[in-house]
Structures are given as C-alpha cells and as structure tokens.
Amino acid sequence: MSAAKTSTIVGNEGGYYAIKGFLYQFDKTLIEVISNPEAEIAFENLQDIDYDNYVLQVKHKETQKYAAHKIRKPVEGLLELFMQDPTKKLCLYCYFTNTEPREWHLTLDELDSILSTPVRNQYKQSLRIQFIRSFVIRFSEDYQKQFEKTIKLIRNSFSLRADEEAVLYHAIFRSKLLDRSVKPQPQRRIHFQELGNFLEDAEVTIFQSSYSKYLTTEKYTKLIKRRYFTFSAPNIENFERLFLIDCDPTFSRVDMVEIASRLARKYFRKDKSPQPFLAIRNAETNVIQQAKRDLFDKGVRFFDGTYFNGDRFRLEDLVAKNLKNPAYSLKIFPESELSRFVKSINLQEIYQFFVSSPVDLTTTGRHIRLQLRRTEEVLRIIA
Fold this sequence. Notes:
The structure is a single chain. This protein has 383 residues and is of the alpha/beta class. The protein is built from 15 helices and 14 strands. The protein folds into two domains: 3-144, no CATH class; 216-381, Aldehyde Dehydrogenase, Chain A, domain 2. It has helices spanning 3-7, 13-35, 72-84, 108-114, 117-122, 125-133, 143-157, 163-181, 192-198, 217-228, 253-267, 285-297, 315-318, 338-344, 377-381; strands at residues 40-43, 49-51, 54-61, 89-96, 102-104, 135-139, 189-191, 203-206, 241-246, 277-281, 302-303, 330-332, 349-354, 366-371. It has a seven-stranded mixed sheet with strand order 5-6-4-3-2-1-7, sandwiched between helices. Strands 8-14-13-9-10-12-11 form a seven-stranded parallel sheet. Helix 2 runs parallel beside helix 7 (143-157) and helix 2 crosses helix 8. The longest helix has 23 residues, at 13-35.
C-alpha cells in the first residue's frame, strides 16, 4: 500500500476499516521500536511484527465483538509458526469493541475451543501445551488510545516541547513505514536510530487529513513552516528548487499571484540562489494566463519558457544554467510539462503542496510532499 493510497477516502466501509487497521498496526510497530531501542523490528515480514524471538500478530476489529471463531485463523497461524520454531514467544495483539485491555494466557481447553477440529487433531497435545506456555492474547486499546500512547512515547523519546510537534514526527514516521512496507521483505525492518534519520530524509509525505482531530490548521501550518520553510542560516543554499502547487476549487487568482510573488522574494538571490521553478496543478489555462499578467503588472518579472505570444514552450531555455538575467526572479512552466521538466534538470529540492493526492515524481533530490486542506494555506507556510 503506497502513502498516496492511504490519503484517499475509500468508497466502502470495509476499505476504510482495513486502512485504519493497517495504520493501527503501524502505530504498534512504532511503539515496539521506541520501547525496544536496541532491537531491529521487522514488520510485514515473518508476521505483522517480529524481533529477536518475539512475534506479534495484530488485529484491529473496530466494529466487531469478540468471539472465539474470530481469532481462530491468526491463532492457528501462530501455532503453525510455533511448530516450525518452538523457541518463539508469540502474541496475538487484538482489539474488539467488547474487550478491555488485558492479557489472556489460555488453558489447553480454551485453546482447543478456538482451534478448528482438523487443526486440533493435526497437532499433538504435547505441542499444544508447549504452545500455550509461549503464547499470550493481549486485548489492546482502541485506535484513539493507542495513537495517544504513541504520541506520548514520541514526545518523551525526542524531548519535544508539545504534543503538536510529536504529531508532526508521527506523520513523518508513518509515511516512511508506509513506503518501506511495499519494499522487498528483507527491507521491511527498522531500528530506533533510523527514526531520527527519517526526520532529515530526502523524501517525506505528510497527510494533514490524518491529523485533523489533533492539529488545527493554524498549528499545522506553523509546524510545517518552522520545519521546512524557515532558514536556519543567513544565506540561502544555492541550488535549483521546484514548487508544485495543487489548486483547490476555491483558490483565487489573487492568492496565486501572491504565492508566486512570495516564492520569488524568498528564494531568488542574485548570484547566490537561482530563480525558483513554479508549476500550478488543476488550474484553468486562462486563469494562469491572467495570473501571469497580474504578476507582470505587479512588477514581478518571470520567464515561462516562451519569448512572444504564441511561441512554443522551450524547455531547454527554461532550465538553462545561463539564465542569469536578474530581471527574472521566477520561472513558471505548465503542468503538462512536469514529467519532461523533472527529467531534464537536477533538482535539489521539490516542495509539493497537494489537496487530495500528490504526484509521483522520480528525483534524486529532496522531495517534500505536504497535504493542505485549502491551497491558500501555502501563503502562511512560505511567508
């Protein structure tokens, strides 16, 4: 499952709860990583989570009440795993609507009441007795309570000032776990030390919609601004940047012009930092053309890859290193040229603001994808 897929609203309830269960499992993975800093935690590997000789199967049944047959399949799977390696310590970590958090160590009769008759007959009683000595069912907290526990662990482990900062860290960690979950099985592993590396990683996706209950728009934009758009040194780094802005239906031309103006002022420095590139997604061509006229009238000079009305788009001129005319403070190109553009230039940074889902881009540079409720929020972030 890709990070982009988890951002969309699923059209059926089953899909919604499946995704929620998937995210619940990732929060449990983070809890295990933070609580066991010396261990390398594997996920979506031998089972949902495993490390050292410990194996967890995670089930989140938000709309279901507990019944023995509802845990039969995972228990039988863990029994099969135990038969292959009796040194394993096994846990079924599960949530049902009618259970309170507790540990349940089964008796042999209780285990046999869960197993199907063919499976019960398949394994000798001596093995089943040995299994229940190494197996526990842990009824867990619900999604919300486990999330709050995860946030508290992150805040304490990274000495953060507020829960809001921990929520942003959580968004980054979850993004990286989602990305890693689709990699080959040997790469689905994580160590506590890697969490710190994730914070400075070259590719990050943050979904605001997943955290709307925990962060107001104002707090979210402040955190994003402080982390990605506040310079820590007096001089801006001298390399190529792309800003990709996704327009929502309420986004005005006035805001479009103001965003372009602010990007030009913030990132262009004559002989120190080149003109930033800007592409607008999901906007009508005539609106973009009018915005360009407004920019020119405002005194913001830009180059859009053309030299006269009706000229063809000249990508090679747009990306040319020798475009040093200080009259230009911004480079603008159409969304339709995005794929060709990215292949033609060595970008050091891409900042992608999206409303519903980001664009998949292949780049060797830094790629930060940030979800917004409304495009106008960009103005507060890049101020």
